Every structure is written in C-alpha cells, then in structure tokens.
Amino acid sequence: MLPAALCPLIAHVQFAVTAPVDLGLYPEPRWGSLFRHLLGEHDDEGRPATWWFTSQRRALTRVEPGELLAITLYWLPAANETMQRLLDALRALPAGAPSAASSALLGPNLRWHAQAPTRSLHDDLAREADELRGETELRWCTRSPVRWLAAAHRERRGEARYVHDERQLTPALLVERLFETPISLRRELDCERIALPALELEIPAAELFFTNLAYRNRDGRDKPTGGLQGEIIVRCRQGLSEAQATWLALTQHLGSGQRRGFGFGQFAFETLDGEARKHDYHNEANSLPRVASHAQLRAAYEHLRGDDEFASDAETGFDAQLHTLAERLQSPSYTPQPLHPAQIEKSDGSTRTLKIPPLPDRIAQRAILNAIAPSLDALMGAHSYGFRAGRSRLQARDRILALYEEGYRVVVESDVAAFFDNVDWWRVAVRLRAFLGRDTLVERILAYIAAPERIDGEIVERQRGLPQGAPLSPILSNLLLDDLD
Fold it and tell me: What pTM did the predictor assign?
C-alpha cells in the first residue's frame, strides 16, 4: 500500500562522550549542525528532507564523560549514498569534527560506540498500523517542536505565520498538515502517485503552546526553529480504517512541518492511557540517580535549613537518613507522603491554605528543582518576573516605569482566582513531557503534585491543583503562566 520510495530506513547509533557536553533541552540543532558539517552541506529549506533524525530528550542536559548518547537516523532510499557518507564520517569522530571549543558543540567530544543493524521500517509500520486500526480516540503527542504554517500564514510575517496554540488548529488543518510530508516527498522524488485516504477527525481537547527557539547558522545569523508543542486528543468516530492507520503510522516516522531535517516535527500517537503506538528506538532517560545522589540531596537540605523545622536539627544520623532517602527515591514503588495543611494570614486579613510536603519529600523536591530550574527558566519570556531566580516584583515595577517613560499610560492589573488550587494536572504533564521528554524524573514530579493530603487524620485524595508550600510548585506554575506573561 505504501510506495517503496517513501518507506524509511533507520540506523540507531550510540556515541561515547569523552568530554562534558551541555545538550540543552533541545539538542536537535547541535546534532543537525554536526551532520551538515560532516557532509559539507548547507541548509536547504526549500526542499523536503529525505533524511532526518531523532535524539533522546532528557531532563538533565549536561552529559558527563563515559555516558552514552544515542540518535536514530532515518532516510529514504533516495538518500542512501548521503547516509552512507554520514555514517562513515560519524565512525571517524572526533576526526573531521568542528574545531571550536565549546561544551555546547557536538563532535570533538564524541567517539563512535555502536550501531544497530541498518534496516527498513516496513515491518514496524505494518505492526504500528495494525495497532492503530480501529482506534476511535488517540493522543497526538509532540516529541520535538512542530513548525506548522497557520491557515492564514500568507497574511502574516515571521513567526506569526505558524500555529501557536489550539485556537489556530482546526480538525481539517490538522489532517492537512499530517499528510503534507508524504505529499511533498512524493513530488520531490517524482515517484508513483499516492492515494491518501479521506480522514475526518475531531479535537475534543488539546493543550498546545509555542516554544521560541533559534540556532546560529554558518553565516552568523539566527534562524528560528521554534514550533508547536503539546498534545491533542483526536477522535475518529468510525474507527481508523486499514488505509488510514497505515498512512498515519508512516507520518509519525516521517515527521511534519518545517525543519524536519534538523530533527524537529517529530510526534507520536498514543492511547489515552499513554501506551505508545510508535516504536521508540531510544530508551527512556533516567535522571533520578543523579538527582538522588548524596551531594544533591545534601545541597537541597542545606537550602532548606532556614525553615523552622530545622532549627533544632541535630546532625547525628542525618547523613544516613539522606542515604535512605536516595534509595527510596530511585525505587519504582516510591510514593510521596501526604501533604500537611497549614493556614497563613494574608495582608488583607483572609487566610491561605498551604499544603506542605513532609521534610524528606521537600528535600527531594528541592533537589529536583535545583537540577531542572536553570534549563526551564531559560525558556521563559523576558517579561516574566514571578517565581524566578534573580527576578522580582521590583524589576516588574522598573519595567512599568520604563514603559511609562516611553509613552505608555495604561497598566492592567489582574489575578487568576485560586490559580494554585485549580491547575489541571494534565496540562502540567503535557508541558513537562514536551520540555523534559519521557525522563523518569517527569513521572516523579507528577507524583509529587498529585500527593494526597492529611485532614483531621484522614487521607484525602486530590484531583487537581499545585500544593502551595511544595518547592516544585512555583516553577510548575510558571510553565503555565509564562504564556500569560
């Protein structure tokens, strides 16, 4: 059913890291730059990519010597010669790598480790299509930013031409963008005509947002690579037919939108309970051992020592307790302890209810926060001042005064009523998975925000909200409020 010219081949490759490297939350431009350097190619945005790649996303972006980095290279049969040249060049690393010294640069700090046998995706696509067939509801989940042109893109300029959130995405535009890549590749390769099946979808729910990213090309100019991230619940009332399932299985490997050749535009279909309908060739990243190290937990504890709970702390035996906490954190059976409600008085005389984790969970949350905050904070807007290190309401005031000097005269003050109490956990989960990937650390964070609370001796399950008083809650709130800022 699928043209042979559109059936990808793959090679899964591992590299040993020989010097520290900071991948950032979005390593795709670093890999893409290395590949094009090795091939001696420049960007060609006017033609659909016949080879592309995926890379593992991880919560902790710094990779130390001795660790392994993995990528999966995809290509169509028409790109066989190009891919063979690239694989040969990668085997020779660090020879031929860019010479600039930087921990953000890939190449000089890599050494070829292993490669799984090259193979066609034919059997994988058949299996995935069989799993998709008959499905009536699925989650469409981004694996990297997707640059989809909006319906009215010809009337706009710059990044405003692209879909930024769910309000700009109709079911019809979703189907059009999903099938755009196979259509453009068929034209590029001048292969046999394809008959794409009609597909009617509904979008009962979506959480989509735009991440602004850029990379610097050889000419020293910043090239936008940002795109849409998040999840869409898609519904096909009749259930996916065999033809529909087959083409959708292919699209989730081809990718979609602009910058596919840089590893962007990657997505996967999942069941509503999170079971992937796309084979992932990367193991889940596991950052828990690094976060749960004795040094990290001790640093988190020292940060919290100002709390009243620590005033009478005796150091005797505490290191042993940290060791026990480290072991518990890494156990698959670990569950957070119930939150403790506490009332504090607000300036207007009313009270606010805090929901405070017990001490071990506060230490663990602080260790996680120390690890992920720098990377997440770097993604937030310049005009966001709340709950951010080195920023405060005083800087927001100064910004308002500066705008006044520029001639602006209207200030709008607003508040989100009971924001922390009403946060939808799914929306938090979507953003964490978009930024940090399927790292095991994400599930631990989600477990912390869903912890029950103890009220009058009874354990009460919670259904929504971020617990005020928990170290992770401020930065998680910023993941949602940054768009508003």
Answer: 0.91
